[in-house]
Structures are given as structure tokens and as C-alpha cells.
Design a protein that fits this description.
The protein is mainly alpha-helical and 115 residues long. The chain has one domain: Orthogonal Bundle (Chromosomal Replication Initiator Protein Dnaa, Chain: A). Helix content is 62%, strand content 0%. The termini are far apart.
């Protein structure tokens, strides 16, 4: 999953949302988390924000919600997403490794933004 797509060429991390384009327009950090998760899962931003239930899109969306609460979802949906991600984070699993890598990327970017 990680590094498996050229997401920047699909309007990914290089583009920030338009003003008034929803939750991501108001929170650059959330937009970047969506970009990082989307790149890892090969899912576009539009797919991340859609209500479609394709397994790959759902897992990416749930992980993004786990990392930052957004997507204009109610608390029960966010709670379910967090529970699902926690259940999937088994020691030494591939998913745990991928989540850890995305979390590390978010921390690095947050540190850079503070400077």
C-alpha cells in the first residue's frame, strides 16, 4: 500500500482544498492527513470524502478519521472507525506497520510546521 501510487499526479498532496470546500478547507493539517492516507491506500481525495463503501476506501477513510476527526460524520461513525482501526492494529501486522508509517509522517510534518 505505502508508496504504491503516484498520488501527487492525481491532484493529491500538491493541491490544497478550495476555500469553502468543506472540513478540509478549514484545516490544512487534516487535509494533509487525508493526502497521506490516500497516498498510502491509492485512494483519491474525492474517494476518501465520498460515502462509497468499497473496502479500500472504507479502510482509508476509517484510518483518516482515526488520525483526525473530520469528514462531517457523526460521533458514532467516528467511534466505529476508531474501534475498527484499533482492532486491526495487531503487533507486527502489515497494517500496523503501515499505520505507524503514516503516523510518523504526520508527526514529521507537524514538527516541520512548528519551525
Amino acid at each position: 500500500m505505502l508508496g504504491s501510487s503516484n498520488w501527487e499526479g492525481q491532484g493529491g498532496p500538491a493541491l490544497l482544498p478550495r476555500r469553502g470546500a468543506g472540513p478540509l478547507a478549514r484545516d490544512r493539517r487534516a487535509a494533509r492527513i487525508v493526502d497521506l492516507v490516500g497516498a498510502a491506500f491509492g485512494v483519491t481525495r474525492a474517494e476518501m470524502l465520498s460515502r462509497r463503501r468499497c473496502v479500500n476506501q472504507v479502510q482509508a477513510r476509517q484510518l483518516a478519521m482515526y488520525l483526525v476527526v473530520l469528514f462531517d460524520r457523526d460521533r458514532t461513525t467516528v467511534s466505529h472507525a476508531c474501534a475498527r482501526i484499533e482492532d486491526q492494529r495487531e503487533d507486527k501486522s502489515r497494517f500496523e506497520h503501515e499505520v505507524g508509517a503514516i503516523e510518523a509522517a504526520v508527526v514529521r510534518e507537524a514538527d516541520r510546521a512548528k519551525r
